[in-house]
Amino acid sequence: ADVMSSLLFRGKKMQGMLLLVFSKYFHLPFLRGIQTQSTRTGLGGIWGNKGGVSARMNVFGHSICFLNCHLPAHMENSDQRMEDFESILQQQQFEGQASMGVLDHDVVFWFGDLNFRIDDLDMQVVKAAIDSNKLSTLWEKDQLNMAKDSETVLEGFHEGPIKFPPTYKFDVGTDTYDTSGKKRKPAWTDRILWRLRPMAQVSNSMSRRSSLSCLTSGTCVSQHFYRSHMEYTVSDHKPVSSIFTLQFPYKVDMPLVTLFVEDEWREISDAVAKFKAAPNFPRSSWDWIGLYKVGFKHHKDYVSYVWAKQEESDFLRQEHQVRANHTFSCTKKTFTCVSKSHIEACEFY
Q1: Hey, is 173 helix, strand or coil?
Q2: What is the arrangement of strands in the sheet containing 257-261, beginning at the earlier edge strand?
Q3: Which molecular-function annotations from GO does this UniProt entry contain (predicted)?
Q4: Whole-angstrom distance, CA of residue 264 vs CA of residue 330
Q5: Strand ranges inside the chain, DSSP E
């Protein structure tokens, strides 16, 4: 996505894990039910160096969840990684949504330092396979790849073809695999997977390794590329990235709140914002309308705001208006108005 023309509307951090979700401005009125969760698994759930952070939302009526995990390290802990993943899924429950758990969503993106390693093969064999670009030899022994055949919780998860060498472990500042005393065996620890709800998937549609997956509802996920970035040397990991396209029919095509603002404000009396709320919009005494500079990057970047208060006598009215204070006086060519529902539940208060 073009982050330069996008808004950061939700973020969640836990120790070294950070999940940021950006959106194009014109999608904002159709993002609803935004919530985040975090689960600590390090030191029995006390320490947050391991675990998962997630963000869920409804996008044009379709439920989507992003889950970023950091799972236990070391070769021998493959079973523990799966146990922690299942624990994260069990603990992360979202309130007041038709989609209560992570895997109840229409589309799930699961990614992060999952820490799975390459079994059986020794260091020399692994490095020789990398040098000769025989990555399929390593892929067959990848713990996560093998776990898909035996772990029920991984059913339905897809991962695009890995055509890049293992992303761990490197000497910091170089492209050289670990030469320290530990001599960690290279592995694909950093991964990006996706999943569609299994009961709704199109039968006989594709293999689990396909870069295209669809639902009977018409929802499709297409992966355009899956790559590592060798140019980054500040860590002993190489970052990975992927771009996806989601295609789905609109279940929601009307915003919860529609704003009507004069094209140009020449004096304070022009600073009036009229708004119309959808019948199913749960009004609150905390609702407000903010004034933002065009191109704002965060929901807290407002120049000013005014409470969208609703008097009891106006409860049945469909259209309302608020009058701004003097700091609202400006031209609409420079500023834009956004209602709370455009960036719903983003901790404005």
Answers
A1: coil
A2: 257-261, 272-277, 319-323
A3: phosphatidylinositol-3,4,5-trisphosphate 5-phosphatase activity; phosphatidylinositol-4,5-bisphosphate 5-phosphatase activity
A4: 7
A5: 6-14, 17-24, 31-42, 47-59, 62-70, 107-113, 157-158, 190-196, 212-214, 220-228, 240-247, 257-261, 272-277, 288-293, 304-307, 319-323, 335-339
Measured between alpha carbons, how far is 44 from 217 in angstroms, rounded to an integer?
A: 40
Distances (CA, A) of 221 to 211, 304, 347: 8, 39, 30
Whether residue 53 is found in the same domain as residue 123: yes
Which 8-state DSSP code applies to residue 202? Answer: P
Same domain, 103 and 153: yes
CATH number at residue 315: 2.60.40.2840
The pTM (predicted TM-score) of the whole model is 0.84
Report yes or no: 49 and 16 within 8 Å, Cβ to Cβ: yes
234 domain residue, yes or no: yes
User: Residue 45: which region, alpha, beta or left (left: phi > 0; alpha: psi -120 to 50)?
Assistant: left
Please report the DSSP string for 33-95 in residue order.
EEEEEEEEEEGGGTEEEEEEEEEEEEETTEEEEEEEEE---SGGGHHHHHHHHHHHHHH-B-T
pLDDT in tens, 94-149: 987 667 899 999 999 999 999 999 999 999 999 999 999 999 999 999 999 999 99
Give the side-chain half-sphere CA count within 13 A for 17.
27
* pLDDT band at residue 90 using 50, 70 and 90 as cut-offs: very high
How many domains would you assign to the chain? 2
Structure tokens at 48: 């947050």
- φ/ψ bin of 267: left (φ > 0), alpha (ψ from -120 to 50), beta (otherwise): beta
